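Exercise 7. Predict the joint structure of the components listed below.
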Amino acid sequence: MEHVENVRLVDRISSKKAALGTLYLTATHVIFVETAPDARKETWILHSQIATIEKQATTATGCPLLIRCKNFQLLQLVIPQERDCHDVYISLIRLARPVKYEELYCFSFNPKLDREEREQGWMLIDLSEEYKRMGLPNNYWQLSDVNREYRVCDSYPTELYVPKSATAHIIVGSSKFRSRRRFPALSYYYKDNHASICRSSQPLSGFSARCLEDEQMLQAIRKANPGSDFIYVVDTRPKLNAMANRAAGKGYENEDNYSNIKFQFIGIENIHVMRNSLQKMLEVCELKSPSMSDFLWGLENSGWLRHIKAIMDAGVFIAKAVSEEGASVLVHCSDGWDRTAQGCSVASLLLDPHYRTLKGFMVLIEKDWISFGHKFTHRYGNLDGDPREISPVIDQFLECVWQLMEQFPCAFEFNERFLIHIQHHIYSCQFGNFLCNSQKERQELKIQERTYSLWAHLWKNRADYLNPLFRADHSQTWGVLHLPTAPCNFMYKFWNGMYNRFEKGLQPRQSVTDYLMAVKEETQQLEEELEALEERLEKIQKVQLSRTKVRSKQSEPSKHSGFSTSDNSTANTPQDYSGNVKSFPSRSPSQGDEDSALILTQDNLKSSDPDLSANSDQESGVEDLSCRSPSGGECVPSEDSAKDRDSDEAVFLTA
Amino acid sequence: MEFAELIRTGQAQAELLRGPEEPPLRGTLCITGHHLLLSPGPQATPDLWLLLLRNVDSIEKRIAGDSGTITLRCKDLRVLQLDIEGVEATLDIARSIEALSSLESVITSFPFFYRPKGLRLGDAWHFHPPECYYKRVARETNAWRLSEANEDFSLCPSYPRAVIVPRAVEDSALARSARFRQGGRFPVLSYYHAPSGTVLLRAGQPLTGPQKRRCSEDEELLRVVLAGARPGARGFIVDTRSPQAAKQARMTGGGTEAKAAYPGWKRLHRPLERGRPLQESFVHLVEACGDLEQSMDRWLNRLESCRWLSHVKETLSTACLAAQSMEQEGACVLVHGADGTDSTLLITSLAQLILDPLSRTMAGFQELIEREWIQAGHPFQLRCAHSAFSHARPKHEAPTFLLFLDCVWQLGRQFPLSLEFGEGMLLALFDHAYASPFGTFLCNNEKERCLCEVRTRTHSLWSGLSQPKEQRKLRNPLYVPNPLAIWPSAEPQSLRLWQGLFLRGTRLPEPSEVAWEKVWQIVTDQEKTEGSQPTDSASEPRP
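Solution:
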């Protein structure tokens, strides 16, 4: 194990304050341990989370190293010796870009579960159950074995639902006319009116080619829905991109060749545009004390929210076609594994309340993303590869879900933390779920035998992910979610909780979710206690009817089991309010102290709970109490806060 | 004056559209001196729909065939549409509304006629006289006294009769300091921060003028403030104008404190927008929020160009700076701009919300608004004469109070458990500041309120809001008292557009209402359970 001493971890917000400590590189993590004896804080970063490492020009104090993580953490280290810095840099470059799957963390991660538990974990989410829940198979749809042993399409799963009238001949013929042989297959079946959402890749139509079997395939999809005499074909790409593809012998369906289809472009940009857009938005997030204008302009220019809206538009269009027009929809883009996955999953989420539950959401990701061959390894750069393949496709889907949660606070069983932790683990490579680019690869690697399932882990900790406001009973939150038709502009907000999740100072300092969950839990406890007491009373009354006087003494219920102190008096210290006035150069003096989300203690890791913020929430609860001192005025100010006061004073004196 | 002269029509048949998703209401429309009434047929659910004419900000009429359409844009940012049968009737109604909604006389305004059941005149008005706050201060320190030097409003027409000043300063010195300050607004105590023993003061700008005049009594007053705080205490003067603007003010007789004249005090300039630019920012924002055609591509740019969120950011960070100076630096703070009746009050009231847990309670917040806005002489009548829709050329209008409410909303969003009142309270305050059946926000200052006998002849909003049926709307069910200062983030990432207000006319309120219901349900479930502990006889008998 390599380590470097006297490294400073610079607080990104305050340039003055830096924590001194030792940097360790292990096989799986970068660990920074503060030297300060009272703190000994540890910051753990998984190698697989590292997006970029940047060595900056050496200064008098040392050599700065900037580590940007895929979960949007930003770490700035200053290493005293240029040589050490270079060594660390070179090591990290290698460690952050493993070349073989076997190097990934999930193959060494051991949460101390026995074999049976691991297998059960993998069985938690079962897609054949899910198709059954949809009402399949039925008179119109059947399970096809045409792709057994991945004979037709190697990026598709083996179990697929297709229209009953689509023979193997039609399917194989159609697959030959589609990019990567991704023929139309069922993604979601809407039992209420028999309409369905199917997905595929683009047809190889070029300028004039056609394929009888492919036309029959679309016909079959239409016939599988007796309630409608047409189907929609939704091409989620901008029209220009689709047309350009024709020159390469690909393209889109010619309405003249297919009977009874309505063709529609949506205009979601490609993975390269999205990658650049995210990059631009993150640059805005990294700005030091931006003005409101800097921020809004930067956000607008990144185009990020516009792209999110385009994806949502696709989902809304599909969901409306299915639920309101009762028409089936075939969705595709180019290869049918990025934008198609986004469109289908957003639509499913709008249509079916099951997907808005904790388990249902896992099923949705399993179905539309994992089983249908979304290229996780390529998109999220888990292995060293072509950087042009990397793009935040599923991140965008998760953000769409968050935007919907903001609109419909009672419609989802899970909370924001659930989305954030899923995002974290898509990149962490700690669990096997998101490894590889297809089911075939996962089978070859024997993922289920060698790694653990994230779903089981999340399910075990589901109490952390529940939304207390969830109302399964309300007409507005059950059934199809209806977005307001008119002004949707205002609907799309910057997701501070994701992209600035490690900047605790920028987050709301109190959590409504946690508070309400605590209240609910307490209510339940009290109810149980009450019940128990009443039961006991009944017994006692039966036995002791003759006893004369009853002296009253109530047993005290565990009143406010702690949440009122930890949750409400939040860790909070003043920040820098001087903005860009030059005379107030420093930022919040003690912000670094609260930035506990950076911290991942070894204990947490051992207990197989890598979830950064779940732990940090508890930690900040503890820290809250220590933070009372400066303002509470009752306790002796801690050393830290005394220091802060000094540093602040210095700031003001220069004013 | 007789209202009857202004009412040009008896009644007409009309259909009312109240919003994008609400069902239209048909009925008979008529106008009284203060209201527009629509009385639907007997089978309709709401038996009478009523609009305070004072609430109408702009009116637009269109004639088509033998009927007309009137669009009323209200000060509370709602937009109403009336389809009226008959061209004459339409024109008459429009003219009547125009005339009646723009009446300026205070004593003929509706609050002087409003006599709701269950409220008694004079109730709740005296919850918050200056004496009341002084008692709180006097419990902590002896260094301050309640001066009645302004008994007859002669020193300062915009101050209340009694103000809190350093004990060591005589009334005569106050008079001289008043002559040296804009509008007679000599430095007075706004807030005493007991944990640090520091004070927050406010004033008008010093009238140094081009000759750089000085006033020894004024200098002495500020010196005494520091001496009374703690040995070696320092002070900050937060000037809410830029250094250039403060300097320029000298040409018109104003100015700012000279460094040499006020030892121990350091001046900080934090320019805040005020007056017409602020009003325009408000108008543009409301316009942008009402524009349904607008594409997503330009929305953030448009939001930026309105500058409203920039004003929120600057205001919050200045208030935090003032609060931080007191709590963390142990310094005294004096806030002023030019008049000391607008941005000054924004800063002093927000700083108190940050520092003072009491001001975050329902009663404390009302007390704060009464003390720091109404009695402190924020000219509500001038500032709130028109809202965002008026075509009239703005004279003195400015949404300073709205900016305050927005900042409080941002605080509440970042500390959802720390304010006893909810968004409903802030919305109600906004509505009532612009048009209200209550007298609380009438007039520009105490002097005018005394002349109009507002306190004896109208009802107080505070008693209106204390009605039990209002509580669910106004209170925050999540409130848990928090004894600490609450330091918000004023970074752009942490601030949001206040959709509940600015998108009132266009957004569906239901999803958030459904959520709110659920919050109440969770919280009241708990209260019920806690309340239903076994009774005495039910507990286990002791041997």
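Discussion. Chain B touches chain A through 88 residues (CB under 8 Å).
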